[in-house]
Amino acid sequence: MVNLTGPDTEGLSPKLAEIVEEFHAVSERDRLKLLLEYSDGLPPLPAHLEGHPELMEQVEECQSPVFVSVELDGEDRAHLHFSAPQEAPTTRGFAGVLREGLHGMSGKEVLDVPEDFCARLGLMQAISPLRLRGMTGMLGRVKRQVRAAHAAAQVQ
Amino acid sequence: MALPHDPDPKLAEYAHPERLVTTGWLAERLGTPGLVVVESDEDVLLYDTGHIPGSVKVDWHTELNDTVTRDYLDGAGFARLMSAKGIGRDTTVVIYGDKNNWWAAYALWVFTLFGHPDVRLLDGGRTKWIEEGRELTRDVPQPGPTDYPVVERDDSAIRAFKDDVLTHLGGAMVDVRSPQEYTGERTHMPDYPQEGTLRGGHIPGAQSVPWARAAAEDGTFKPRAELEAIYQQEKGLSPDDDVIAYCRIGERSSHTWFVLTHLLGFSKVRNYDGSWTEWGNTVRVPIAVGEEPGTVPAKGGK
C-alpha cells in the first residue's frame, strides 16, 4: 500500500529506507541542513583515485564537475567513490547520500534500487526538480558501472 | 536611507557606477543600518557552507519564481520575500553570488522588475571575496520583518516575451549562450544537463556574444573600454539601440542585460527570459543554424 503522506520506502533496502525516513523526519528547511551534513561528510577519494579523474566517470547530468567510480570486490560488494568540488555542496550532498546508502551493497542490490529513489527524499520543493536531475544522473551512472563490471566478470 | 556610492575609479568609468560596489567598500560597511547583503547562487546550499557575515540568501529557483506558473513572483509575493529578508523599500541591497555573479545579476534583474530603487552588485562576487581571504560565516541572520510595500511588477521596460521577440525580429539581439548552443550543435550548456529543447540554433538576426566575455579573470567585470570593444566596436551595437538579450532560461542574459544597461548605458535592453527553452520548443518560429546571424524572414511570412 502506497503511503501518500509519509515517506515512501517501498522496495528500498533498510539503509536507504532509513535515509528517506531521516529526511522526512525534519522540516523542508532542515532537509537542506541535513543535505549539507552529507556534503560535509563525503569521504575523500582513496589514494589510487586521488588526482586521477581519468580513472573515474564524469556525471554529465550535474552542473559541476562530479566524478564517480564503482569498484566491485570478489564478493560482489560495491565500493563507491565520488569526487565533487567544495563549491558545489548540493551535488556533494547528493553524492554523500548515495555513498552512505549504496556503499557495501552487493552489485545486484545496487541494480535493484528503485529509479525514483532520489525523488523520495522530499527535496523537490527545497532544491527544485531541475537540480534533482543531477542526483538521478549519478545513480544511473553508478548502476551502469555495476552492469559493466558484471558483464566484464562474465567474459573472464 | 541609501548608502553613498563606491567612489572606486574603475567603477567611475561605467555609465552607472552606483550599481556596483567593490569588495573593499563592502567589507568596511558590513552591519551598516540601511544595508542588506544578499547572496544568490546557482547552488542552493553554497550560502549555507559559509557566506559574507550578515548576508541573507535569496534562491532563484525556490524564492524568485512562482511555484506553479513559469513566471516570477507577483507584487504581494515579492513584498513578503523582502520582509522575510529584512529589506525595506529604502534599503541599499548589495547582491553577490557564485559563477561570476550570473545568478546575482538574475536576482538584481528581478528586483528591478519591482523597481527596487537601490540594488547593486558586488564586483567579482563570491569568488573574489574568498580569494581575498575575507571573512565568511555559517551564522544565519534572523532579520525582523519590514513593511515592504506591494509594488506590482512592471515587465514592460526590461522584460521581453516571445511575441515581443517575434515583433522585434530584424532588430538588435544578443544570444549570450556558448558558441555550440548558438550554432545549433548542442541544445544545452557544455557540462550542463539537457533541459529538453527540441530544436537547436538561434533566433535569426541574433549576434553571438557569450556572456562570460564580459568577465575578467578574477570574476570582476572588464573595464568599460574593453566592454565597448566587444559590444560596440566588434558587434556594432549602439547605446540607443533597442536590444533583446536571451540565453537558455534568462539567467546568463541577465548578466549581459546588466552589462549593457548599467555598465555601458544602453537605454533600452530587454531580457527574454523564456529564452531558448521556449523558442526552441515553439511550433513554427524561425530558427537560424550555423555561425552567422542568419536571415530574418519577411514579416507575416511564417
From TrEMBL, chain A:
It comes from Kineococcus xinjiangensis. Residues 20-145 form the Fe-S metabolism associated domain. InterPro entries: Fe-S_metab-assoc_dom. PANTHER family: SUFE-LIKE PROTEIN 2, CHLOROPLASTIC (PTHR43597:SF5), SULFUR ACCEPTOR PROTEIN CSDE (PTHR43597). This is Cysteine desulfuration protein SufE. It comes from the Bacteria. Coiled coil: none annotated. Belongs to the SufE family.
TrEMBL record, chain B:
It catalyses: thiosulfate + hydrogen cyanide = thiocyanate + sulfite + 2 H(+). Keywords: Pyruvate, Repeat, Transferase. It holds the Pfam family Rhodanese. Residues 179-206 are annotated as: Disordered. The keyword Transferase applies. PROSITE patterns: RHODANESE_2, RHODANESE_3. One of its GO terms (molecular function) is thiosulfate-cyanide sulfurtransferase activity. SUPFAM superfamilies: Rhodanese/Cell cycle control phosphatase. Residues 31-138, 174-288 form the Rhodanese domain. This is Sulfurtransferase. It comes from Kineococcus xinjiangensis. The lineage of its organism: Bacteria, Bacillati, Actinomycetota, Actinomycetes, Kineosporiales.
